[in-house]
Amino acid sequence: MIKAQLEPNPAFTKRLASRARNLATAHATNRLLTRRNDPRHWRLASLLWPSFREDN
Question: Which strand (E) or helix (H) includes residue 27?
Fold first, then answer.
């Protein structure tokens, strides 16, 4: 059996939390704009590709 010892990596945790926050924000904004029948939800790059932000 293979055993592994993992050490906590705060940088990885921070990046993962940032990506999750970006996805959640984009999802909530997209839902709001869709509910309001606002066509910007198809035009805003930050909503179409939330993972391709500079801070990720």
Answer: helix 10-35
- Residue 50 CA to residue 56 CA, distance in Å, equals 9
By C-alpha distance, which of 55, 52, 53, 31 is closest to 41? 31
Rounded CA-CA distance 30/48 in Å is 9
| One-letter amino acid for residue 27 of the chain | H
Supply the pLDDT for residue 54: 67
Q: Which pTM does this prediction carry?
A: 0.72
Amino acid at 50: P
Residue-wise burial string across 17-42, b where 16 or more C-beta atoms lie within 10 A, e elsewhere: eeeeebeeebeebbeebeeeeeeebe
- The pair of structure tokens assigned to 1 is 């059996």
